[in-house]
Amino acid sequence: MAMTFEEIHAEIEQLGTNTKAIHDEMQTNYKNLTKSVEENVVDKTKIETLKEDLVSRSEKLEGLTTKLQTQIDDLEVSLKRPSKIITKEDKVEFEEAKSHMLACMLNKGQNTNYDIVKNLDVSVDDYSAYCEDFKTFLRKDSRQLSPEQYKRLSVGVDPDGGYTVTPFMSNRIVQKIFEMDPIRQLANVQGISTDALELMVDWNEAGVGWENETESSSETDTPDFKKKRIPVHVMYAKPRATQQLLEDSAINIEQYIANKVAEKMGRYESAAFVTGDGVGKPRGFLTYDTGTDYGQIEQIDMGAAAVLTADGFIKIKYSLVEDYLNRGTWLMNRTTVRDAMLLKDGNGNYIWKPSIAVDAPSTILSLAVRMATSMPAVAANALSIVLADFNEAYTIVDRLGVTVQRDPYTVKPFVEFYTRKRVGGDVVNFQAMKIGKISE
What kind and span of H or E run contains 385? Predict the structure, then answer.
């Protein structure tokens, strides 16, 4: 069996020690023989003994030298042998394992401060075993799991009895939601480990002034900080599958559940971010009163009864502060986009321009246009159009971790998968958003 680098190194050190000891003894014996000759003390028996000892030690030293050279050669081979290459897949699997461990801790309410996260003992093998056992759990009743499987899955049990889904499945859910929900793509998304995100908002700027050489400077205004708290709320889905479907090994049950969950959660999220009242759900930006004070979003009267006009779009665009305007995006219902595509400016040019680049949005008055089903259609007094720097204006908060409970009893012969995700959302910068209101 091949020796390790450490074993070879240790043996070389030991051989070196033994060789030195033999050499030192030979030197001592040689000196004693020389001294005897010089003193004319000739003892043939003693000389023969010393001669035999020198020959014996010389042979032993030669053998140790040969062995030492062999070990040195082995050491050189060991040093030249390429170590295990860490691939991109290995790094991804390690990060998934770490993410899963952190999500399990969060769902159990355990402490996840910086020092604990930094020193997490992450086992990729344990994570891989959990993934396999989780797939088995989705297909079978937990009572059918082996004791070893049940033990491995227990690390992911949250207080409500659900299991923390694997990062692969969780990422699939989130990715699907991103594809369905443009607000998630536009807004600022924060992941937290508590039940709410708290932040300070600088509402008013600091005052400044000019100082005269012969006059004392007067006091200037101090920035006005507001405390904003965005709690997370439970959003759930209950996709169903028949037991026969689950028993069919050709079905990717993880993908099936992830798609069903994402489709429902994507629609619910989008609606809440637009029109949610903040009670048990995120608060939508259309629910705020009109105005320019903190806690208000200015609504711009578009100037025509129950219809869109090009002048109305111009009024909205230039009501937004320039810094936000440069990063602004229009958001409206697809039927509103349809009507806007027909509008022309005073020179007879369409204000809507199709995109000429792949995956780039079309524009209205040179600003990107995105569609959201939750936005109201054009009607009298409807808040049908929003223009905002969404990354600055709106923040979405995700509580890390998605959990699932398997229920084979309530709706037989279906198996129901109760899946929970905690999410919140609210406006954090009221100056970075303007709403277009259709006139009566």
Answer: strand 383-388
Please give the helix or strand (H or E) that residue 392 lies within, else none.
Answer: helix 390-393
Locus of tokens 């409970």: 405
375: amino acid identity, one letter:
M
Query: Mean pLDDT over residues 370-394, rounded?
Result: 95
**CA-closest candidate to residue 399, choices 424, 418, 419:** 424
Q: Which two tokens stand for residue 327?
A: 């990063």
Is this model's pTM higher than 0.90 or not? Answer: no
For β-strands 329-332 and 367-371, DSSP reports them as parallel
Return the structure tokens found at 38.
Answer: 């010089």
Distance CA 257, CA 138 (A): 9
| Backbone dihedral angles phi then psi of residue 292, each to the nearest 5 degrees | -115, 5
Quick one: what percent of the chain has pLDDT higher than 90? 34
- CB under 8 Å to 1, separation ≥6 — which residues? none
pLDDT (mean) for 175-199: 85
Name beta bridge partners: 368: 329, 363
Q: Closest Cα to residue 359, out of 179, 219, 190?
A: 179
Residue pair 165/265 in contact by the 8 Å Cβ criterion = no
Taking a C-beta distance cutoff of 8 angstroms, is the pair 251, 239 a contact? no
Listed range (61-75, 83-97, 116-130) with the worst mean pLDDT:
61-75
Query: Which pLDDT belongs to residue 1?
Result: 45
DSSP 235-259: EEE--EEEHHHHH-TTS-HHHHHHH
- 293: exposed, middle or buried (Cβ count in 10 Å: 0-12, 13-18, 19+): exposed
